Amino acid sequence: MTTPRAINAALMLLVASGGAVFLAVGVAVAEPNPSSDTSIPADGPDYGVNETRFPLLWSDDLDQQNRSSDEFEETVSSAPEFSTRLAGSTDVPFEKPIEDVERWNSGDLQDFDPGGEKTSVYPERAHLEDGLYIRDAYTSIVAVQPSTVLHSGNTSTRYITPDGEVLAIADYRVRVPDDDTSGSVRHYWSIADTAVDTVVLQTESWTLDADHGHRSTLEYRRLSGAQNLTVEATVTARLRHETRTCTDYNSTIGSCEGSWETEVDYPTEQVTATDSRHAVVSQIDDRGGKRVTFENDPTHTGVVIHPGTRWAAIDVGSDARLRGNWRFYSAGVDGWQTMVSRTETETTRTNSSVRPAQLHAIPTQKRPDMPSKATEDAEPPLVIEEAWGSKHAGPSLSSAIAIPTVDNYTNATSIAVRSETLPAATFDEVTVHGIVRGQSETISVPDNGTVRDTTLELIVLEANSSGILVQATVTETTTGDPVTTGRVEIGNQSATLNASGMAVLELEKRSSSLIDGQYVPADWWRADQLYSAAEDRVTVPPNYPAFQKLVQLLLVTLLWFLPVALAVYGFDYLTGGAVLGLRDYP
């Protein structure tokens, strides 16, 4: 089996197992060496993420390229094995946001093992808070989900849905003062009780949810706009402080010769730790659109859709899908590869038991496309007429991400398509899928009328050595009513139609007697009055002189030549025809 055939066979296995991926072209395939890279968690696959998908979640792993494909070819026996080797050789983008990232994060959260009262266990980038007794207190957001971090230009923005959840962990340790066991007054310290009392999710304006403990799943609902999601954990420690006082203390021998009086108090302390994520709520704007049919071709349908936001795909019925600029990849979150354990006297570092993943979106093409192509036997179900929106520079990704992006792209918040194969009723509703997993909305597309057929008539008003004057008239073919929008083009000349549906164009004199003109309407996806294009051809008539000028030319000719003819005839008469021979004499 040749290498391409081996890869194709493996891809078929991968797709059959649910691995919907898009492979970057021209990327070397090689066997990874997992033992040399800690980017991939050692405890996976798990939590409902299967063997095929799990290796693809860690695009920040160490890719090993430029190796022979022989090993890959010989061992492509299953989809999971192919997926592991593929992920170790390159990074694999997805065509849509995947749910596996959320499954993994939710399950992996439960792997967090706090350190106990005197040990704080925290990710190495956690922001630590200290009090008098409570030390190394923190809370860290593990994930905001579903969410997608979109990369464009030099910026990265986290997009979320209006409803979602925030996963967080918290821990701390308690520093217990040393006992003082000498003298007449002695102090004994111990921990009475400690807890992560509250874990609150809030924005700048609202408290959204609350929990307690070391692992929290906090929910939010009906958010909009830009939000700062903040998790605030409050840690409480209550210590037992016992004070013993001797009523008769012999300092010479260091002994209490009386009795000990005991007092107990319970110093209490609270420390608050926070962690935040800035996010923008991605919402599909149901600004509708419009659907048109064409008078000159009843099988032809045009549709304009205005998602109003970044989108991953648009489904038209069950047979056609438009694909947005974006592809998606998953990678581990920075700062979670190492977990630190700290006591009062010791600090150790180990591989983290919590390894969150994050979904990312990048532009891999300049504008949307239609994946289904035309064949010799059939037209594509949809043809994109135009996609428009704001223009942006492509992102610069980390060198660890081996997925090509475009230098610039159009963020198409509106798109116009036409179809010659799908029934018009197919476009009654379309489904827009956003860039965040689970975000989709069905948009109704109303019927906005028919693109009416038109007729263009060209008439030559005047043609002379200076040029040609042409009158163009555009009417609706069915009704004969004048068309008052759009323009007429003849060669490099153009003129807009007036209220009577007419335009006059002054052309330069040309060698050809044929004049071709076109009526150019406004694009149907932008216009309120819908018309189709039309053409006409006219012939410039020959430039014959007028009758009066011909009579004048004849008279002038006679006046010029009659005296000469009489003189010649008279001379011939006088000479008897001997010289000119115009007449014979007997």
TrEMBL record:
Residue segments, region Disordered: 65-91
Ranges that cross the membrane: 550-571
DUF8186 domain ranges (all copies): 110-281, 289-443, 451-538
Entry annotated with the keyword Translocase: no
Transcription regulation as UniProt keyword: no
InterPro entries in the record: DUF8186, DUF8186_C, DUF8186_M
Domain of life of the source: Archaea
The protein, known as: Uncharacterized protein
